[in-house]
């Protein structure tokens, strides 16, 4: 199953990278990298990440899907990107019963949504040209009321808004290339990490945590390295080496969580890697397509959308939230609500306590 996902992404990337804003990459090149050699990187003895205490981030870093981020909060305001395929996109701001559209794109889609301190940042994918055959990628930055819109010609693999600064990696066919940052106005550009491909990263608690996929080929054994560094790329420390799908890694407490294939590569389970013990254990006996941290729980969706379960991180107990087949992967969990993609002005969600389906009308 994962092979076909990777194959599809490869084909899409092969077509689109010739049209979108991107950097040329050579996945076999390791010259002039800003990551210092492995022997020069200090290994960190202890590791602990408390995501709940981070108040500078534009998105809660508890989502195993970096790309499909179309819903987030800033203070009491909920921001929701409506997905109409290539027929246009709308960004809603919801303040209780008061809802309004603050941004529209006629032939676009919104991904990597961030909102923090009155600013909104996201990746906009648009179809341009006479026959809408040209794919255009920009980082869009605007104020929370929809004013002061700016666009930057960058196609990203990861995008985070942190403490009024924008952090991103360039898109390649095999993960991100380089980690760079700029201020909220698109100035003061800085290169933090130079790497041709295989980069996924988070910005948490004034640190950058980078997952580096050593081998991005189809024959890869999924070996990853996790690094911690300051926001300017200094003081790099290697935290752990493990095998996982790099784009599914999440950090919580003293552990790394990820999805990876079983030994026979036929099943894809959720695992926990405890950094202090250098030990790994499976958390599920069923295949997982998506998971998200909320309070002391992991909510995870079964592969092929066969329902959602909740795992208690204290006692390991599992509970069904819904056994119904859901139409797509859920997007985010906020205020005890499991939100799905917004479509036609309707935002569906499942109540975390009752498992009942509900919806909010945004139009």
Number of separate strands:
29
Overall pLDDT metric:
85
For the biggest β-sheet, the strand order reads 1-17-16-15-14
Can you tell me the overall shape?
Answer: globular
- Poorly predicted runs: 3-33, 35-40
User: What is the oligomer described by this structure?
Assistant: single chain
Share of residues in helices: under 10%
Distance between the termini: 37 Å
Which sheet architecture does the biggest sheet show?
5 strands, mixed
Number of helices: 1
C-alpha Rg (nearest Å): 20 Å
User: Strand percentage, roughly?
Assistant: over 45%
Q: What class do helices, strands and sheet pairing give?
A: mainly beta
What is this structure, in a nutshell?
The protein has 363 residues and is mostly beta strands. Helix content is 4%, strand content 49%.
Write up this protein.
Helix content is 4%, strand content 49%. The chain is mainly β. The strands form 7 sheets. The chain has a 5-stranded mixed sheet with strand order 1-17-16-15-14, with no helix packed on it. Strands 2-3-4-5 form a 4-stranded antiparallel sheet, with no helix packed on it. It has a 4-stranded antiparallel sheet with strand order 6-7-8-9, with no helix packed on it. Strand 14 (199-204) and strand 15 (207-213) form a beta hairpin.
């Amino acid at each position: 199953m994962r092979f076909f996902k990777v194959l599809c992404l490869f084909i899409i990337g092969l077509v689109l990278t010739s049209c979108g804003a991107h950097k040329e990459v050579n996945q076999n090149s390791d010259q002039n990298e800003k990551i210092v050699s492995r022997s020069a990187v200090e290994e960190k003895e202890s590791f602990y990440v408390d995501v709940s205490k981070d108040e500078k981030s534009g998105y809660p870093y508890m989502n195993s899907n970096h790309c499909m981020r179309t819903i987030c909060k800033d203070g009491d305001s909920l921001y929701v990107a409506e997905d109409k395929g290539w027929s246009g996109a709308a960004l809603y701001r919801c303040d209780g019963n008061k809802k309004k559209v603050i941004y529209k794109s006629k032939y676009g889609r919104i991904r990597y949504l961030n909102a923090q301190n009155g600013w909104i940042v996201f990746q906009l994918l648009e179809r341009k040209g006479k026959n809408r055959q040209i794919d255009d990628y920009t980082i869009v930055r605007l104020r929370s009321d929809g004013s002061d819109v700016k666009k930057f010609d960058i196609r990203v693999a990861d995008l985070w808004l942190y403490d009024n600064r924008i952090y991103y990696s360039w898109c390649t066919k095999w993960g991100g290339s380089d980690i760079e940052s700029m201020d909220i106005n698109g100035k003061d550009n800085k290169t933090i990490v130079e790497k041709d491909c295989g980069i996924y990263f988070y910005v948490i608690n004034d640190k950058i945590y980078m997952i580096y996929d050593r081998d991005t080929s189809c024959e890869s054994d999924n070996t990853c390295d996790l690094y911690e560094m300051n926001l300017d790329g200094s003081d790099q420390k290697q935290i752990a080496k493990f095998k996982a799908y790099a784009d599914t890694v999440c950090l919580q407490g003293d552990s790394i969580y990820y999805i990876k294939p079983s030994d026979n590569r036929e099943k894809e389970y959720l695992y926990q890697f405890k950094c202090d013990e250098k030990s790994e254990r499976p958390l599920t006996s069923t295949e997982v397509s998506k998971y998200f941290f909320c309070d002391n729980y992991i909510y995870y969706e079964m592969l092929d959308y066969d329902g959602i379960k909740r795992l208690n991180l204290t006692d390991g107990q599992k509970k069904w939230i819904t056994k119904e087949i859901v139409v797509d992967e859920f997007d985010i969990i906020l205020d005890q609500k499991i939100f799905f993609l917004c479509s036609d002005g309707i935002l569906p969600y499942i109540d975390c306590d009752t498992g009942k389906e509900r919806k909010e009308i945004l139009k």
